[in-house]
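[audit] Reproducing an earlier prediction to check determinism. Same input, same settings, fresh worker. If the tokens differ from the archived copy the diff job will pick it up downstream; this log only records the rerun itself.
[audit] input (324 residues):
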Amino acid sequence: MRCLFQLASLCALLGVTGCVVIPIGDLLKGPELSEQVLIEGTGIFGKEKIAIIDIEDVIRSGESTSLLFPEESTLRETKARLDAARSDPEVKAIVLRISSPGGEVTACDILHQEVMKLRRDRKIPVIASIVDQGTSGAYYIAAAADRIVAHPTAVVGSIGVILYNLDLSGLLGKIGVSAAPIKSSDKKDLNSPFRPMTDEERAVLQRLVDDLYQRFVTVVDEGRPQLGKDEVLAVADGRVVSGIEAERLKLVDRTGYLSDAIEEAARAAGIETPTVVQYTRIARSGATIYGMGPERPSARELRVSLDAGMFSTPKLYYLWHPGL
């Protein structure tokens, strides 16, 4: 629909009448989600599958606004894959293959709840495998798994919340630009980049961040019974650690590779020779368990667009993104 709106707006700007608007976004989203077999098992009574579900890149709820390369939101795509595994009775275990710095607070929370719901409904083991990065919101989702396996060289942690803020008033003043919003109350333009933030406003936003931080701490405390509340708080200062250190701090159960996580899932499900599958819109010959998929044409453009969006539209993030 967004692409449809963009095309309609373009026609209006050009003064073109009788313009036929084709929803290009719907045409370019590609084929339906399908199952791809990565390892063929040898089950006697039918296939016993382990489904690999990818959680990668910045986790967001919105769709790409690119006209030529539209993309579904991370939230929608991941939920579609979880639903595919949920509806297949041959799926006996799930491995979350995580390679993400986190993302939007609500999107991460929804995916955490979706994993918890899948575990309750299907009563199958879920193993999180942090491949190279499982920080902030991505770790929040991993905490919903039965066990977490992290590559020794993975970056793990960054338990915390961030709300980006810019004060452009000094710069705008130098070029003779000022903002004069008409508002119903003094806090209606809270976190505006066009004026300095007052101490009272900062306190309001700090309470909001603190509430979401406490939710994060609770999720980790409940998802990691090996840790006491005080132990969680001791490492919940935004720090990141290696997979090796994460094991020592009990943020993960062990270090290991994706193949180790698959073996753990098989043991937990009582499967000797599992069929390992993934869900994809573009099946590739020769794909392996480490095949994260080719970079989509709009991936680089999307990251740039998202980074800019962090400042144009204030949002709360469970995200590790240093140097932004």
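[audit] rerun output stored. Observation attached for the diff report: Confidence is low (pLDDT under 50) at residues 1-5, 20-28, 292-311.
[audit] end
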